[in-house]
């Protein structure tokens, strides 16, 4: 519902946190304690005043759950960290899921670096547009100074780091 109703380009980080919490609550009702989510938010951040591109966190969290944690056996963990360093907001989304191999990781990072990139097609034929859309919105929001990098190790998990200039309302 949030993705359909939101046409704001910038929203308070508190709104993005709330949307991820609601998404996780729905997941939790459906799958129980299979995945545990943890927030680590820097005390120096005012979530209601810090502005971010709309719909920037939930697609990354959804990818972590869908591609990394759901297919894995046993319980999984998802951690979302936020902090400010050198006037840049850093959002880190980490999971201990399946991870991905070097070829897939390289292809993903290459696509995110190209402004004309086309979405990646996954093994099941689905086109991956979530990260690419986030990259494009981030570039507009940050006048090209923002970035997303993905690191991953097969069998150990994936980490997505989003960096953007701090903008306050």
What oligomeric state is this? Answer: single chain
- Structure class: alpha+beta
| Cα-atom radius of gyration | 15 Å
Mean pLDDT level: 88
Distance between the termini: 25 Å
Following the backbone from N to C, one meets helices and strands in this order, namely: HEHEEHEEHEEHEEE
The percent range for helix content is 25-40%
User: Looking across the biggest beta sheet, what order are the strands in?
Assistant: 2-4-5-9-8
Which regions have little confidence, pLDDT < 50, spanning 5+ residues?
A: none
Q: Main β-sheet: number of strands, strand sense, barrel status?
A: 5 strands, mixed
* Structure annotation, total helices: 5
Approximate shape? globular
**What portion of residues belong to β-strands?**
25-35%
- Counting DSSP E segments of at least 2 residues, the number of strands comes to 10
């Amino acid at each position: 519902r949030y993705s359909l109703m939101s046409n704001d380009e910038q929203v308070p980080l508190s709104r993005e946190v709330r949307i991820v919490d609601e998404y996780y609550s729905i997941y939790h009702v459906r799958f129980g304690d299979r995945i545990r989510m943890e927030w680590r938010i820097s005390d120096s951040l005012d979530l209601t005043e810090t502005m971010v591109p709309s719909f920037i966190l939930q697609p990354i969290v959804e990818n972590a759950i869908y591609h990394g944690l759901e297919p894995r056996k046993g319980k999984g963990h998802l951690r979302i960290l936020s902090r400010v360093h050198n006037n840049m907001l850093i959002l880190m989304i980490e999971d201990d899921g399946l991870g991905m191999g070097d070829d897939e990781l390289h292809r993903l990072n290459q696509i995110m670096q190209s402004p004309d990139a086309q979405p990646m097609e996954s093994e099941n034929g689905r086109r991956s547009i979530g990260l690419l859309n986030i990259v494009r919105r981030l570039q507009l929001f940050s006048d090209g100074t923002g970035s997303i990098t993905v690191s991953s190790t097969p069998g150990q998990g994936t980490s997505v780091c989003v960096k953007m200039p701090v903008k306050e309302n």
